[in-house]
Amino acid sequence: MQLAAEIAILGTGFGGTLTGLLLHRLGRKVVLIDRGSHPRFLIGESSTPIADLVWQQLCSRYQLPHLAPLAHWGSWQQTYPQLACGLKRGFSYFRHQSHHGFTPQIDHANELLVAASNRDQTADTHWYRPAFDQFLVDQARREGIVVCERTLLDSIVGREPWRLQGRQGTEPFEIQADFLIDATGDGGFLPRHLHIPSLAETLQTRSRSVFGHFTGVDCFWPELARQEGGFADHPFPCDDSALHHVIDGGWMYVLRFNNGITSAGFLMQLEHHASRATWTAEAEWQWLLRRYPAIGRQFARAQTTPLCGPLRKTGRLQRRWAQAAGGDWALLPFTAYGLDALHSTGNAHTLRGVERLCDLLGSSWGQPQLAAGLARYDSQLHREVDLLDQVVAACYEAFADFQLFTSFVMIYFAGAIFSEVKRREGTAGPQADFLLADQPDYRERVDRTVAELRRRMAEGPSTADQAEDFRTFVARQIEPYNLAGLCDPNRRNMYPYLD
Questions:
Q1: Mean pLDDT rounded to a whole number for the chain
Q2: How do the domains of the chain map onto residue ranges?
């Protein structure tokens, strides 16, 4: 088979397919290519308020009204009730101690809940990616976009135009395209074939994962209900969230979908959990459930799904390529780097990258300024990765002292909420950096907060007075960006949504 296109997109995850839909609306001839097919097991599932907002605005700008309902839980359920997803009202964190059950403290010192919405109707969602990605690919086909699945590319022959060669099934396959977009994620087709150097060792975050999709996972709130203190003053049900179980040297995510499936996985700091690096995924999973009995009870009946298959285990998750764009090619963010699932930044960052790249190709296609715009795309993405990595790596360090973590993480939430509000007001446009990475004042405040956290961590476990002193320090740092009453001691780590 031989095909020709203006733009070839490699990978039909949500980022690649959405990019194809937007560029098709701009009048570009697009081809989507994937070595696999749908439905398939995928993770990277949580939306956030800024992700929802960007999704909504893209659907409006590019006239895709049939996709707009996917921006919120309520409109999703009303329009596409058959399409599985999960309700996400915010972020919940619970600090577990090894070999002990979880006992809520009356002051919530071992809990943190941060709301992202005030009601289910406008809440974020967890995307059940096997169904979500299939839905988008079906939409692309309905739009008339050529989608080539089960197509294995193995070589690049020349440029101007690009010529990619491989096989579709047993048949030879060749495509010519003027521009390539790599949406293959950790497959990294273009970086590997262009021999782009890896910058993974520049990243401070160092983690690996054991994960899967499960049936039979219980909610966590019954565990709280058994204890004095309970959950009566939680601002939202803790299971209707991106639920984080914080453990020694890592954390676990638990994301519930409305089809009876739960996505869950442990993410562990490499050095802290090095002794089990060679264990099987199943052996390590069971060891962790035994070590943290409250989590073990939640997963006592859990079984992996047929689509997922056995538990999966990774080596180091972090990856980063030295270049994310050239004169006639670009990587979407989740191909350009991989960091960690902490705080659910991945899908939002991908959507921002899709938005910027499509804006650029829409305004500068065939123009001399395209090269300069792609260079800006590259530098902007690296700036954002540096900031995200700095914050996530420091959070891993703070897990050891949860009193400090609950204050430190507010530097992230302050920036995220501030970005969302300014975007909603129209005072921060599509070209603004993700999480205020282009704001020197915010970056300096992050630097100071990270440095102060590390100084205090080096001194050993904090006393109540020391933890309060650090909370006051962080409150001062986030003050210009604090639109949600963060670091308020009267909240006792329970932060409702403020309109």
A1: 95
A2: 2-42+128-201+319-370, 85-126+206-313, 401-495
* pLDDT of 485 higher than 70: yes
Residue 340 contacts residue 317 (beta carbons within 8 Å): yes
Please report the sign of the dihedral spanned by the C-alpha atoms of residue 242, residue 253, residue 19, residue 436: positive
Whether domain 85-126+206-313 has CATH 3.30.9.100: yes
Average pLDDT rounded to a whole number, residues 22-42 = 96
Q: Is the pLDDT of residue 284 over 90?
A: yes
Mean pLDDT of the 159-182 span: 93
Would the pLDDT of 426 be above 90? no
Confidence of residue 428 (pLDDT cuts 50, 70, 90): confident
Q: Which pLDDT belongs to residue 427?
A: 82
Mean pLDDT across 105-114: 94
Adjacent-strand bridge partners of 113: 92, 494
Taking alpha carbons only, the member of 405, 118, 135, 350 closest to residue 240 is 118
Over residues 294-307, mean pLDDT? 98
Look at the domain 2-42+128-201+319-370 and name its fold. Answer: FAD/NAD(P)-binding domain (3.50.50)
Q: Over pLDDT 70: what percentage of the chain?
A: 99
High-pLDDT (> 90) share of the chain, %: 91
